[in-house]
Write a structure and sequence with these properties.
Low-confidence stretches: none
CATH architecture: Up-down Bundle
CATH topology: Sodium/glucose cotransporter
Strand order of the largest sheet: 1-2
Number of strands: 2
Shape: globular
Mean pLDDT: 86
Oligomer: single chain
Length: about 500
């Protein structure tokens, strides 16, 4: 192993050791399942903000956005960034505070399915069970994609067996999450967001220098048709460009709707200690999202400039997503200090994946142990904690089995799961918080119709192309909203106890 590889390995091992230590420390604060799954509602505003965003971004921030910008220019990545930024801001502005307060009023719900059940006084448990099943359906493969991304990173860096690398990565993620639960996942997310930020800044500065300066980078980008406009996209295969039309823009902006239904993000709102400090979280989260994603887009453009200069190889197809890895590899060849910095960058990619995988693992585990099997597993605080940890381990095993194929898609799963949660849960969350007349029949209809429409649009409608080629989240979100309104109005109004709780939750 070369000196550069050893330095990279040292940085990554130090990072992995740090997150395991955090898990160990947080384990001492978990006294019951409420602590394990929601941190005892004791998160500070900064941890809430950075944990929500780190668990959201995954490796899309350090791999997806730069790769997209590298190949096709700023339009596709740019409109996605705008949609996600607006979604982040609105989620913190209109959902966070109300959900924190209402989840406490609704019999201290500690999971999203429990909130739906308690909010509507659903004695049948239909909302609880269906919501939990939806979480398991989407989150186990979502978690598997995170394990796979970690395995691919280690395998490509050190030439080790993919399966072995993936399992080691999974063991670390499962280790600190099983030990420390939600508090460990949230605390490590804060650390991971800092590492991701350092990685973005270092790569950008190093890349601009190697590419010959920012003016040279822009000159190279301007030479490509449609590369630097928000209303066209560059086709790397033939060097031409194609219009980025209104329907495509709306479809891309629709990514922002997904935030309203993301269980692992919404849990951060439910867990903050003081709801009055959520305005701090909103500002921190929005600023970080806008800056980090914008820098990631710039890295894609700078990466193309480095390819033109011959500093890194020209990338095509999905290989474009490794542009930061290529820059880090180049950096590692310039002495020990730069090699250690390269290790920090690669740890940042690992962090971006782990920060999402741990949250997904907890959400899927809580859906099974707390929601689907809650009554059977509730013995005492100690027994509940043991059951929660065993369930998490079982979920992780299933995710590892699904991730055993190194050629499995990562970002395709992310996109589909994001749409699934956004459509199945987003409208239900919004109507639960803001519409007094919404009832359990409407919520159930919205949840089921939104989830089903994701599959219908993805596999039956979108393949028709043309005007039908819309990201499935948008039409499914609209369908779910319509079903909630129509079914709620067509069925009996909520009982007085439900309305009284709603009114109490609206008070400031």
């Amino acid at each position: 192993m070369t000196q550069a590889k050893i330095c990279i390995l040292i940085a990554i091992v130090f990072y992995l050791g740090l997150v395991l230590y955090i898990g160990y420390r947080c384990s001492k604060k978990n006294k019951n399942t409420d602590d394990f799954y929601l941190g005892g509602r004791k998160l500070g505003p900064i941890v809430t903000a950075m944990s929500a965003e780190a668990s959201d971004m995954s490796s899309y921030l350090l791999m997806g956005i730069p790769g997209l910008a590298y190949l096709s220019g700023i339009a596709d990545a740019g409109w996605t960034i705008i949609g996600l930024s607006i979604g982040t801001y609105l989620n913190f502005l209109i959902v966070a505070k109300k959900l924190r307060r209402y989840s406490k009023i609704a019999d201290n719900a500690i999971t999203l399915p429990q909130f739906f059940k308690n909010r509507y006084h659903d004695g049948s448990n239909a909302l609880l069970y269906i919501a939990a099943i939806i979480i398991v359906i989407f989150f186990i493969p979502y978690t598997a994609s995170g394990f796979a991304a970690c395995g691919k990173l280690f395998s490509s860096l050190f030439g080790v067996n993919y399966m072995a690398a993936m399992i080691v990565s999974a063991i670390v993620i499962v280790g600190y999450t099983t030990l420390g639960g939600f508090l460990a996942a949230s605390t490590t997310d804060l650390i991971q967001s800092i590492i991701m930020t350092i990685a973005l800044i270092v790569v950008l500065l190093f890349g601009v220098n190697v590419a010959g300066g920012f003016d040279v980078v822009l000159d190279n980008a301007r030479s490509l048709s449609g590369y630097l406009t928000m209303f066209a996209t560059h086709n790397a295969a033939d060097g031409t460009s194609s219009p980025y039309g209104f329907i495509t823009i709306i479809s891309t902006l629709a990514w922002g709707l997904g935030y309203f239904g993301m269980p692992h993000i919404l849990l951060r709102f439910m867990a903050i200690e003081d709801e009055e400090k959520l305005y701090i979280s909103r500002r921190v989260a929005t600023v970080w999202v806008v800056i980090s994603m914008s820098v990631a887009l710039l890295i894609g453009i700078v990466g193309y400039g480095m390819s033109v200069q011959g500093a890194i190889v020209t990338l095509s197809g999905t290989d474009s997503e490794t542009v930061i890895v290529k820059v880090a590899d180049l950096m590692s060849q310039n002495g020990v200090i730069m090699a250690l910095m390269a290790g920090v960058i690669l740890a940042g990619i690992l962090a971006s994946t782990m920060s999402t995988a741990d949250s997904q693992l907890l959400a899927a585990s809580s859906a099974v142990s707390s929601d689907l099997l809650g009554e059977k597993l509730k013995t005492n605080d100690k027994g509940g904690m043991v059951a929660a940890r065993i369930t998490l381990l079982v979920i992780a095993v299933f995710a590892v089995i699904l991730a055993r194929d190194p050629n499995s898609s990562v970002f395709g799963i992310v996109s589909f799961a994001w749409a699934g949660f956004g459509a199945a849960f987003g409208p239900v969350v919004l109507f639960s918080l803001f519409w007094r007349r919404a009832n359990r029949f409407g919520a159930l209809a919205g949840m089921v119709s939104g989830g089903l429409m994701i599959f219908i649009w993805k596999y039956l409608v979108r393949p028709l192309g043309g005007a039908w080629n819309i990201y499935e989240l948008l039409p499914a979100f609209i369908v779910a909203c319509v079903f909630i309104v129509v079914v709620s109005l067509a069925t009996p109004a909520p009982e007085k106890a439900v309305l009284d709780e709603f009114d109490l939750a609206q008070k400031k």
